[in-house]
Design brief:
The protein is α/β, with parallel strands linked by helices and 300 residues long. It is built from 12 helices and 7 strands. Helix 5 packs across helix 6 and helix 11 packs across helix 12. It is globular and about 60 Å long.
Length: 300
């Protein structure tokens, strides 16, 4: 199995995993493939610490008797998909969250016909301009999509919540409050911008899609500075191909001029939300898939 990812390099029990030259994406893909082949769960923290092929073999042999994945249970919310949370979220979006967003963002929506007749769930892939991106997209979506959507938010933005030992009590409280409010009102879940946690995220997104909940992803991984679109990361390709979910490209224009990431307060302005035709992917060329999604967003 390792030979599929190492480009012809020799593989022996004593070979170091570092010498195999695996990229972060290849490591995640390898972990997923090993789990499927051996019907087990591999802890990413233990995988990162494995130094040689023999270490990886021992890890797989002992994984079946390992404790349940505590990191996943801690990182990913489940309470926000229950009936009470869904009811609070639906009422809040309708009564004050989206009306407040519309006060600042005068939204023009294009391409909603691409959603007509489309059977969910899907992955919405949008360029990233502002903290207002999510409410602006929610306001532009038809109700049948709006209220069954999970939103990916950078895990690193909530670093004091997930790594409390490195921060003060006040920082931990503020970060945790923001995290829980985001999870409640926007059905948000953490998307790591580094290798650790990517496998658990793939599984969590798969669980959302299985519940007929679509997902909103910002594949750039960071907000724009001057309206440009930064390169899309290959994770969007892996997610679309492995989960076999259609990808709907979304182009945002002008949201950074309503609330730039360096501003403390929003300013009223016009924004545009454009939906494109859904894309479907198969195979393992995730970088190319990400480029195709980016090109579709840029063309809108």
């Amino acid at each position: 199995m390792l030979a599929r990812y190492v480009g012809g390099r020799p593989v022996a029990p004593g070979t170091s995993l570092e010498a195999l030259g695996l990229s972060s994406l290849e490591r995640v893909e390898l972990m997923v493939a090993l789990e499927e082949a051996f019907h087990t769960t591999i802890e990413e923290s233990a995988f990162v610490q494995a130094g040689t092929v023999k270490d990886l073999q021992r890890l797989i042999e002992t994984a079946a008797t390992a404790e349940p994945d505590a990191e996943r249970a801690w990182d990913f919310p489940s309470w926000n998909t229950r009936a009470l949370a869904r009811g609070v979220r639906r009422a809040s979006l309708a009564l004050w969250l989206l009306p407040l967003a519309r006060v600042f963002a005068r939204i023009r929506t294009e391409g909603r016909h691409h959603l007509d007749g489309l059977q969910g769930p899907v992955i919405f892939a949008a360029n990233h301009q502002s903290h207002l991106d999510t409410p602006v997209i929610l306001a532009a979506l038809p109700p049948r999509w709006r209220y069954r959507l999970g939103t990916a938010m950078a895990k690193e933005f909530f670093k004091p919540h997930f790594f409390p030992d490195q921060f003060t009590r006040r920082q931990r409280f503020t970060s945790s409050l923001n995290y829980y409010l985001s999870a409640l009102f926007f059905n948000a879940f953490p998307l790591p911008q580094r290798e650790a946690g990517a496998r658990q995220t793939l599984r969590y997104v798969g669980e959302l899609l299985a519940k007929d909940v679509s997902v909103l992803i910002f594949p750039e991984g960071r907000r724009t500075d001057h309206g440009e679109i930064n390169p899309f990361r290959p994770g969007i390709g892996m997610m679309a191909a492995r989960l076999q979910a259609p990808v709907v490209p979304v182009r945002l224009v002008g949201v950074d001029r309503v609330l730039h990431h360096t501003w403390r307060m929003a300013r009223p302005g016009r924004v545009s939300v454009r939906f494109g035709a859904p894309l479907r992917f198969d195979g393992e060329h995730y970088e190319e898939m990400a480029r195709q999604v980016q090109a579709a967003v840029e063309a809108l």
